[in-house]
Amino acid sequence: MPNPLTSKATNTWKGNLFQGSGTTSLESSGLATFDVDWKARTEEHGGRTNPEELIAAAHSSCFSMAFSNELDSNGTPPTELRTTAEVTFVAGEGITGIKLTCEAQVEGISEADFQRIADAAKTGCPVSQALKATPIELTAKLV
């Protein structure tokens, strides 16, 4: 059985929701600290991030890993995958949807097999699994 790996991020918030702000740090890797606030979540990013952008980063990378593995298992490993995740947040409603878009260079695969494997990767991706209460749309294209 594989050893579990726990990843950690920490947020420090000061003030109330609307005028306050915080920082989110990637603790496990130590690679970055990001400024966050309500305005970046509901109006404009302005050099700050929000939870939805961080979810989008996690989802796009996880989907690419899952898709790469599925393609390799099919005997058609990808040359390159470029996945974008767009996470939509509506104040008062929450996260209302996620759109995954993947452009892929894969040699020797039919369009039907490509689409079938892309859908399997979307379903099997651990981040997709964690977010399955949210509608997830996938557009996958061979380039």
TrEMBL record:
<dbReference type="InterPro" id="IPR052707">
    <property type="entry name" value="OsmC_Ohr_Peroxiredoxin"/>
</dbReference>
<dbReference type="InterPro" id="IPR036102">
    <property type="entry name" value="OsmC/Ohrsf"/>
</dbReference>
<dbReference type="GO" id="GO:0006979">
    <property type="term" value="P:response to oxidative stress"/>
</dbReference>
<dbReference type="Pfam" id="PF02566">
    <property type="entry name" value="OsmC"/>
</dbReference>
<dbReference type="InterPro" id="IPR003718">
    <property type="entry name" value="OsmC/Ohr_fam"/>
</dbReference>
<dbReference type="InterPro" id="IPR015946">
    <property type="entry name" value="KH_dom-like_a/b"/>
</dbReference>
<protein>
    <submittedName>
        <fullName>Osmotically inducible protein OsmC</fullName>
    </submittedName>
</protein>
<dbReference type="InterPro" id="IPR019904">
    <property type="entry name" value="Peroxiredoxin_OsmC"/>
</dbReference>
<dbReference type="GO" id="GO:0004601">
    <property type="term" value="F:peroxidase activity"/>
</dbReference>
